[in-house]
Each structure stands twice: as structure tokens, then as C-alpha cells.
Specification:
single chain, 101 residues, alpha+beta, two-stranded antiparallel sheet
């Protein structure tokens, strides 16, 4: 959990950079929305969407939903459009964006 989507994107980008010298590649998905606290865990549709977005990411890619891209306008982050994606559990396709380092 982050207090803002820009911090989440920057953290994911830093993790990608930090593990690269170890010959490790990760993929990350970032979405923002309301979450439900379930004890020490989180749940809810926003968590499920983030997991679905992450599943679409390539190795060493930080993939973000259009919601994140719109909310971080003016934060100095850059994105490359990756097109529309059908995500399991959603009735409408979602536009996804790759965060550009």
C-alpha cells in the first residue's frame, strides 16, 4: 500500500533497477482504488485489478492502469501506451501503460 500512485510507480521502478544487477527481473502492476483491510492483509477489487495488470507486464516492466496514469499527471512520470486489455473480472477493457524509466 502507498499513500499515492506516483510513489507506487516510483517504488516499482526502483525495485526493477535494484534487482537487475543480480540478474533478477520482476514485473509490476500498479492500480489505485479502495482496498479492504482483512486483518493484516488487503483485498477488494482494486487489489484484484492490480494483480491482473501485473500479470500482463513483461519482465522488468512496470505496467500501470489508466487510472494511475491519469492521477499522476504532473508528477514527472512518463508512460508509453500499451493498448486495451481484457482483465478477468472486469466488464470493460482497461487501457494499460508502461512506466518509462
Amino acid at each position: 500500500l502507498f499513500d499515492g500512485p506516483a510513489r507506487a510507480v516510483r517504488c516499482a521502478q526502483e525495485i526493477v533497477r535494484a534487482v537487475r544487477p543480480l540478474d533478477i527481473e520482476i514485473r509490476a502492476g500498479v492500480h489505485t482504488g479502495e482496498v479492504e483491510m482483512i486483518g493484516d492483509d488487503v483485498g477488494g477489487i482494486a487489489v484484484h485489478i492490480a494483480a491482473r495488470v501485473a500479470a500482463r507486464a513483461h519482465a522488468s516492466e512496470v505496467l500501470a492502469s489508466n487510472t494511475v496514469k491519469d492521477l499522476v499527471a504532473g508528477a514527472g512520470l512518463r508512460f508509453a501506451e500499451q493498448g486495451m486489455a481484457e482483465l478477468k473480472g472486469l466488464s470493460e477493457p482497461m487501457r494499460l501503460f508502461s512506466a518509462v524509466a
